[in-house]
Amino acid sequence: MNETVNLNDLVQSRIGDFIASRESILSQVGSGLDPFAAFSRDFLSGGKRFRARFCYWGWQSVSEAPEHPAVSGSATLSDVISVASALEIFHAAALVHDDIIDNSDTRRGAPSAHRRFEQLHRQGTWAGNGDEYGRAAATLLGDLLLGWSDELLDEALDNCARPVARAARSEFNRMRTEVTAGQYLDILEERAWRSHDDDSQLGRAQQVLIYKSAKYSIESPLALGALLAGATEEQLSSLRSFGLPLGVAFQLRDDLLGVFGDATVTGKPSGDDLREGKRTVLIALTRAAIPASARRILDELLGDPELTGSQVSSLQATIRESGAVDQIEAMIDNNVERAIAALDPAPLSAQASAQLRELADAVTRRSH
């Protein structure tokens, strides 16, 4: 299977069919709901599909493993595509809500969901506040996408034997709880960081990174795919040992892009994380390395949505000169090495392991 082409096409097709089936329900409710389906299609078209890809190769790594016993009622390829598509819909819901929380204007170089609804309000010259309408409507869109991800997951699990379906559903539920909790810890840290000792900032930033992103981006999709194939405890443990450090490296790269990324490539303004006040591992390392006077300036500017270009450049220079960027790059390399090492003795398919190694490079060497 040509994973980079066919898997993306299969997932895109499944998502398109699913939205079309729900669009008929929306149309029965009222024509004013047309944007829900239209915006959903836009947000779910394209993208890197990392979660879908890790889910697929988690399934392949187990189902094609040498001497892996056939598991009655395990998932078929069609079922796996549906679960992978459910992960993509869940991710879209998380992004819609995340953009509302962070007050982000753009997503992948286009207006974020709440800004699109705000534009509808403005174009229609409707009553009330456009910003409030946009945030309220986008919140409901995110909720709808969350529900849709559950529906598509259930459609796939209905075709599996009860033990397989129960294990997969438990993993999905745990992922959903963890990422929501991690998101809350993220916004809590942005506002409550002064109430904690400076020495604990790094540990708290790492906790946010693991639960908001690392587990949900890579470890859980991998585990979900493996469980669909009836993975043994040894196989599941090996994939988690690969997935968690790789997820950490993935988010560390994302944190660097959030501060230094090229807006024309990332689709987000340069220095966006600085304006949002993200208390990331990168910021924790910077604060620990700079003198108190520079730390006060950083703390004063971080989280100011009106930061000028020159102020962003100044903060970027402070972060670079602190040595924090080099530390992050070293942490990325270390976590990738740990992840790859976990695959070497693992009782998994050789082809899938090779693909997972390629994915490890793709998610940590990216520019957007």
TrEMBL record:
GO aspect biological process, one term: isoprenoid biosynthetic process
Cofactor list: Mg(2+)
Keyword Transferase: yes
Species per Swiss-Prot/TrEMBL record: Mycetocola zhadangensis
Keyword Metal-binding: yes
Gene Ontology MF annotations: metal ion binding; prenyltransferase activity
Protein family according to the UniProt entry: Belongs to the FPP/GGPP synthase family.
Coiled-coil residues: none
Xref: Pfam families: polyprenyl_synt
Protein name: Polyprenyl synthetase family protein
